[in-house]
Design brief:
alpha+beta, Transferase(Phosphotransferase), domain 1, three-stranded antiparallel β-sheet, five-stranded antiparallel β-sheet, Phosphorylase Kinase, domain 1, elongated, 17 helices, 17 strands, Serine Threonine Protein Phosphatase 5, Tetratricopeptide repeat
């Protein structure tokens, strides 16, 4: 983008002259730099533009009064001068941020307004890269490197929190990695107070989401004002940063700011194994999840406490179960008879896995030494054994058939079942059968004693346990179908329909804790949506 220095009109970068007054066009950055040179010429010498954002532009400059010391000069937008409240807050925030004196926090040298009223902040110039740039280049970092970064950020945050200064927008973009005189890693936290200044500008806009949505705390997502936030809000954002360092991604993802708000309010962060299966660090996961607790009372009390817990967990031995092959396993399933005893509608029993240790195969027997003796005798013996098998097996089968025929005939004469043995027929049962109420055929039913009144079917007739199980399964299927429909409505953002679906499912089973939790989640999301829309 280029602009005309005479008429101040903006033109594309491919144009060299203004079509109205034939003046040579300059880039927007050059125009701003020229204005700063005239208004801040006695304090700073502008070298080049470093970057820009929604609040202003950052320049590399030299502070003339301190031996041309290199500084990062952040110049805020001049349109902010129209808001007197912003200027007052800018002075207060710049003064309070300048009080932080810690090696892990960027140093503020000077703040004020230029001759034309433009607000500026002169801070320590750092050479290196932001944590965001490192994550883009490398992805998830090793645990030891994460611990070194987390520890220094925790010390810098603690120094600010002791002065009552809350960052409110902690994220990898505001964490800078540089190096000391001996090549050691030095981590700097930057942009303290900028989020509060941004709130001063945008708090009158309806539906404005303050902070960076992916890293905002539960309190910020719920609409809490910045004056009500405390250090635990930064700890939540700090936990999001730690999660991203270890796994390479933030715990929640959405395409819209309101989607991030809904996830911060109602969803739990996925476990490490669901995002990065090779990261076997349960202690580290426990530390990070505590920092991401929805209830700020359940989080760490200070940034230092979180940093120490993270460092201790990083030094603890990590599990190597995922890298060790499992021993040989044998899968045994329940027999059909056992499954039939559970009822016709009972779910199939899961496989029972019996772990057997690996055994070395036994070596084969050594062949006999010397010439083989008695070979002819051995062959003759084998022939006789085979002949005995051919004759003996049919004889045994015939004998068993005769015995079975005899038992069956005796059983029929005594009025028993052909499947019962003679012993069971002659011996009276230990528990005599109990006669149940008559069914539709009027024949008394024999079986085990049934406790309580009989289960009534649709027509008022007694219902068997299998039929009762079928009814229960049908009710469970209706509950699952209603919950699945509610989940579908919830994911699509139709919270009213999701609430109605969950309520209909709860009418079938009021004791279902998962349904109550899903209903409350949908109500929270609806409340958050209404709050940010109105």
């Amino acid at each position: 983008m280029r602009s005309c220095p005479k008429c101040q009109r903006a033109y594309p970068d491919d144009m060299d002259y203004c079509p109205r007054d034939a003046a040579a066009l300059v880039s927007v950055a050059t125009a701003t730099q020229t204005e700063l040179e005239s208004s801040l010429g006695q304090r700073f010498h502008i070298v080049r533009r470093l970057g820009g954002g929604g609040m202003g532009t950052v320049f590399l400059a030299e502070q003339i009064a301190v031996g041309n010391r290199p500084v990062a000069l952040k110049v805020l937008l001049r349109k902010l001068l129209d808001d007197p409240e912003f200027l007052m807050r800018f002075r207060n925030e710049a003064a309070s941020t300048g009080r932080i004196d810690h090696p892990n926090v960027v140093t503020i040298y000077e703040s004020g307004q230029a001759d034309d009223g433009t607000p500026y902040i002169a801070m320590q110039y750092l050479e290196g890269e932001s944590l965001r740039a490192k994550l883009k280049a490398r992805g998830a970092l090793p645990v030891e490197e994460c611990a070194a970064i987390i520890g220094q950020v925790a010390r810098g945050l603690s120094a600010a929190h002791k002065l009552g200064i809350i960052h409110r927008d902690l994220k990898p973009d505001n964490i800078f990695l540089t190096f000391g005189d001996e090549g050691e890693l030095v981590v700097k936290v930057v942009d303290f107070g900028i989020a509060k200044l941004r709130e001063s500008v945008t708090r009158t806009l309806a539906g404005t989401v303050l902070g960076t949505p992916a890293y905002m705390s539960f309190e910020q997502a719920s609409g809490m004002r910045s004056e009500e936030l405390d250090a635990r809000s930064d700890i939540y954002s700090f936990g999001v940063v730690a999660y991203e360092l270890l796994t390479g991604r933030v715990p929640f993802h959405s395409d819209t700011p309101l989607g991030y708000v809904r996830k911060h309010l109602s969803e739990e962060p996925p476990p490490f194994r669901a995002v990065k299966p090779e990261l076997a660090a349960p202690q580290l996961e426990q530390v990070v999840m505590k920092a991401l607790a929805k209830d700020r009372e359940a989080r760490y009390g200070s940034a230092l406490e979180f940093g120490r817990a993270f460092t201790e967990a990083a030094q603890a031995p990590r599990s190597v179960e995922a890298r060790t092959p499992l021993p040989a396993t044998k899968i045994t399933r329940a027999s059909g008879a056992e499954a039939g005893q559970r009822g016709a509608v009972a779910p199939q029993a899961p496989a029972v896995i019996a772990v057997q240790p690996n055994r070395k195969p036994e070596p084969p027997a050594a062949p006999p030494l010397g010439p083989t003796v008695g070979t002819t005798t051995t062959r003759r013996g084998t022939g006789k054994s085979r002949l005995a098998l051919w004759v003996g097996v049919p004889a045994v089968a015939l004998l068993l058939g005769l015995v079975g025929w005899y038992v069956s005939s005796v059983t029929y004469r005594q009025g028993g079942s052909p499947t019962q043995s003679s012993t069971e027929t002659q011996r009276p049962p230990a528990n005599p059968p109990v006669v149940k109420p008559q069914g539709e055929s009027g024949t008394p039913q024999r079986g085990a004693e049934q406790k309580g009144p009989p289960v009534q079917g649709p027509a008022g007739t007694p219902q068997t346990p299998a039929a009762s199980g079928t009814t229960a399964a049908s009710g469970r299927q209706q509950i699952q179908a209603a919950k699945a429909q509610g989940d579908s409505y919830y994911e699509s953002g139709d919270y009213d329909k999701a609430i109605r679906a969950y309520q209909s499912a709860l009418k079938l089973d009021p004791s279902d804790a998962a349904l109550r939790k899903a209903l409350q989640r949908a109500k929270n999301a609806k409340a958050a949506e209404e709050k940010y829309n109105h």
